[in-house]
Amino acid sequence: MSYRACISGAAEYHLAQHHEVRHHIAVQRSKNTPNKNEMAVWLRSGLRIATHMTDTFASQTQSPYRPIRQWRRSKRLHKLLYNHLGLPLHTSEAAIRTLKFALNPAQVRLRERLAVDLPATEQDAELEREGYLQLAPDQFSMLPQALASCSRAFEVSVRSGAVHDAQAEGPKEFLVSIIRDEEAYQHNGLMELAVSSPVLRLASKYLGSVPMLSGIRLWWSPPNTSEIDSQLYHCDREDQRQLKVLLNISDTTHKTGPFTLIPAGISERVKSEVGYSYKRYRLTDEEVWSTEDQTQAVPLTGPSGSAYCVDTSRCLHFGSRQNSEPRLLLMVQYTRYLAPNVTLPSWLPDRSAAPMELDELQRLALGLTAA
């Protein structure tokens, strides 16, 4: 293999997010002979790649864990098949699940077997029936640390001006990310909460498989007067079912734009009546309540520390709508291993993360195995 091909392959695999490298990959592929300046750029890019690979290897060799073999970015293929090529939704999803299964069938079978072996509780039947469940705070010993960490992270973001920069630059002015995915390792109590035994047991039984932890967000909702985008009723599209834990960091009332849902059975009737489609998946209040009683809506209000789990694929929902007071909410998302429309973070702890002792379910949820 040529030097150029080696560098091109490594660059695309290890630094696909690096725009400068991606640009020069395209330049080099369009030319037969690079000039001296272009070769210098390639050499600098190669050094960056080598440094990145070395740092990644060093981090992994110091960790007791390594990533399992899996396909983390199936969302891209789903977008191509469903949005661009126009395949039916079930066809696109079935194709991606088949590919994911073929990549690591043993992983799928292990997760399903472990989920079956977990003890069942009355909560499981309620969650299956309603699509949501209020969680008892006393299940989570790390809750005080998690609440304090989230409040502190928000205060730091406000003092530094980062929250306002994110609001100005982000896709939604009414919903701003303060903590995102792997950053949770730097905040005491968050990862412990995300992989806590009560949540993983509940998610495993509900999904029929030990889930993947597919996202963590600390969301800030500033006061607003809008009613657009995710402020309208919708269902999420990652899979046919998923589970999100929603933890109210601040006291949440009707004035703070609470996350509001319609139970799963009623949502199914509404979607059937209005011809709900994932290509037009935002619904106005008028469309929703033309078929059902408006009192069926459930706002997830409560004091700081109140928590719920919700299947946002089955339950129509909205949030952050026209709140007169700000809201701070932690969201932790769990999806099935074969979920077709997800982009999974890498949960391999880096050297700066506090060490965690993980049991088998926790390692599986993070997509890790013993090194």
Keyphrases for this structure?
371 residues, alpha+beta, disordered N terminus, 43% helix, 14 helices, 11 strands, Jelly Rolls
Description:
This protein has two domains: 59 residues, no CATH class; 228 residues, Jelly Rolls, CATH 2.60.120. The protein contains 14 helices and eleven strands. The N terminus is likely disordered. The strands form three sheets. A six-stranded antiparallel β-sheet has the order 2-8-5-10-4-3. The protein has a three-stranded antiparallel β-sheet with strand order 7-6-9, with no helix packed on it. It has a two-stranded antiparallel sheet with strand order 1-11. Helix content is 43%, strand content 13%.
Give the neighbour order of strands across the main sheet.
Answer: 2-8-5-10-4-3
- What is the alpha-carbon Rg in Å? 22 Å
Provide the CATH topology of the largest domain.
Jelly Rolls
Order of helices and strands: HHHEHHHHEHHEHHEEEHHEEEEHE
SS elements, strand count: 11
CATH class of the largest domain: Mainly Beta
In the residues, how many domains can be counted?
A: 2
Task: Detail the topology: elements first, then pairings.
Elements: H1 3-14, H2 19-29, H3 36-61, E1 65-67, H4 74-84, H5 89-103, H6 105-117, H7 122-130, E2 132-135, H8 143-160, H9 162-169, E3 176-180, H10 190-194, H11 197-207, E4 212-221, E5 243-248, E6 260-261, H12 264-274, H13 285-289, E7 298-299, E8 307-310, E9 317-318, E10 327-335, H14 360-365, E11 368-370
Antiparallel strand pairs: 1-11, 2-8, 3-4, 4-10, 5-8, 5-10, 6-7, 6-9
Helix pairs in contact: 1-2, 1-3, 2-3, 4-5
